[in-house]
Automatic annotation (TrEMBL):
PROSITE patterns: DNAJ_2. Residues 39-69 are annotated as: Disordered. Residues 199-261 form the J domain. SUPFAM superfamilies: Chaperone J-domain (SSF46565). It comes from the Bacteria. This is Molecular chaperone DjlA. Coiled coil: none annotated.
């Protein structure tokens, strides 16, 4: 029984392009002996009976049509691949970073699914990944809110060993650029992982000279941008993960309320 049959109905666009090639190679490395043909490697959907086909031809559907197909499984494999890129950015793999990835996957997906995903992650980690190609596929197929959630997760990995080294930060910055994430959005999420005096302003994407009215407008804007409901199409597990980012926005606003006295 082919190991590819572990891929279930929860995977959509990520079966094609560079991501599909990476996942296909990783599954092949796992070996057919691991598969029983009854369970999915990623997600909770029922396995397809046919062998997945990796699309290589251009897809001319509109952005809205394509992004509507992003699933929990698509997000999951994107996360695994980009996590591997960040962990290897400084030339070494810290066990605390690997433990962080496992812990987060257990929190989101449960122990059984996380264990299966981590087996796949180990095989992905052995590959040389073309970061630009992977990110461009994600940018084309995944909506903005989900891409912001990916970035938040990557900063969490980098900080898992208590310090974000320059190589890791540069790699995340490069990934953000390839994903089409603006510098304001990048700095907002980055500020959630640093302890600096102006972090509250950066999280809300405003300057220190902002008026009270501007702070209030910025807060309302960021609530809309980072609200967990924006990623509910990815499944409850990712909606829960987005709450940590949302709480940082609320905390930043409350801090400025206290400092400015409004």
């Amino acid at each position: 029984m082919s190991a590819l049959k572990w891929i279930g109905a929860t995977l959509g666009w990520s079966l094609g392009g560079p991501i599909g090639a990476i996942i296909g190679l990783a599954l092949g490395s796992l070996g057919d002996a691991l598969a029983d043909g009854k369970e999915t490697l990623l997600g909770d959907g029922q396995p397809k009976q046919q062998r997945p086909r990796y699309r290589t031809r251009p897809d001319y559907r509109t952005q809205q049509q394509k992004r509507a197909q992003t699933t929990s499984g698509d997000f999951e494999v994107s996360l695994l691949i980009l996590a591997s890129v960040v962990i290897k950015a400084d030339g070494s793999q810290d066990q605390r970073e690997l433990d962080y990835v496992r812990m987060k996957f257990v929190e989101m997906y449960g122990k059984d699914r996380a264990n299966k995903a981590f087996r796949l992650f180990k095989q992905i980690n052995n590959q040389n990944i073309n970061t630009r190609q992977v990110c461009l596929q994600i940018k084309t197929m995944m909506d903005h809110a989900a891409r912001l959630q990916l970035l938040h997760f990557l900063f969490g990995i980098a900080q898992a060993d208590d310090i974000v080294v320059d190589e890791e930060e540069r790699q995340i910055y490069t990934i953000a650029g390839y994903l089409g994430i603006s510098s304001r959005d990048y700095n907002s999420i980055k500020a959630m992982f640093y302890n600096q005096s102006d972090n509250a302003y950066k999280i809300l994407e405003i300057d220190k000279t902002a008026t009270v009215d501007q702070i209030k407008r910025a807060y309302r804007k960021m609530v809309m941008k980072y609200h967990p409901d924006r990623v509910e199409h990815l499944g409850e597990e990712h909606k829960q993960g987005a709450e940590a980012k949302f709480r940082q926005v609320q905390k930043a606003y409350e801090q400025l309320q206290k400092e400015r006295g409004f």
